[in-house]
Design a protein that fits this description.
Shape: rod-shaped
Oligomer: single chain
Structural class: alpha+beta
Order of helices and strands: HHHEHEEEH
Length: 196
């Protein structure tokens, strides 16, 4: 629930910041157009209507260019802010997953994942697991229901395991870091932090 509030708060902050920048740009453009109009009316008395039209066209082009440049800068700033929020959220999620590996529920999680992995057809499986979780190997083997080789790895930094078949190269990645990374795509699509 707290994460949803954080997401909504971030979205509101980004929208408010965007609206302020848009209002400031529009006010600046309006002021530029008003100033240019007064100047052109004086010149129009001296020069032909053709020159007045040319000056107006030039001002509109310049204003469009400035709006475009300002929009690009605003978009870059918003993207940086969004990326900062996303990093903060995923860093917090990672910390919670690390804490989860110290709970009794973590052993239950590994048991469930081992049972699910037993559905895969592997003839020579290798269990890759971090050193901190080696004491779970017997429980994983019991739930997996088949024998496997064990390989200690430092590639798994949060928790979970990887089962890899040496014959077919089938890989079942049940690491918490893999699960966390899979959530990045979902988060990007559903967080409401898309910048247009």
């Amino acid at each position: 629930m707290q994460d949803t509030e954080i997401f909504l708060s971030m979205k509101k902050e980004i929208e408010a910041e965007s609206q302020k920048e848009i209002d400031a740009i529009m006010a600046e453009v309006k002021a530029m157009e008003d100033e240019a109009m007064v100047s052109m009316q004086k010149e129009a008395k001296k020069d032909a209507d053709l020159r007045l039209k040319q000056e107006l066209d030039d001002i509109q082009s310049q204003a469009s260019q400035e709006i475009s440049e300002t929009h690009t800068q605003r978009t870059k700033a918003l993207i940086a802010k969004r990326d900062e929020y996303v990093k903060t959220i995923f860093d917090a999620a990672r910390e919670k997953l690390v804490a989860f590996t110290t709970t009794p529920e973590y052993g239950e999680y590994l048991s469930r994942k081992a049972k699910a992995a037993s559905e895969e057809d592997m003839s020579e499986p290798v269990l890759m697991i971090r050193s901190e979780d080696l004491h779970y190997v017997d429980m994983i083997k019991e739930n997996y229901g088949k024998d496997f080789q064990v390989e200690e790895t430092s590639d798994i930094t949060i928790g979970g395991f990887i089962l890899k078949d040496q014959v077919t190269s089938v890989v079942v990645d049940e690491t918490l870091e893999f699960a966390l990374e899979n959530q990045r795509g979902w988060f990007a699509a559903h967080s409401g932090l898309m910048i247009k």
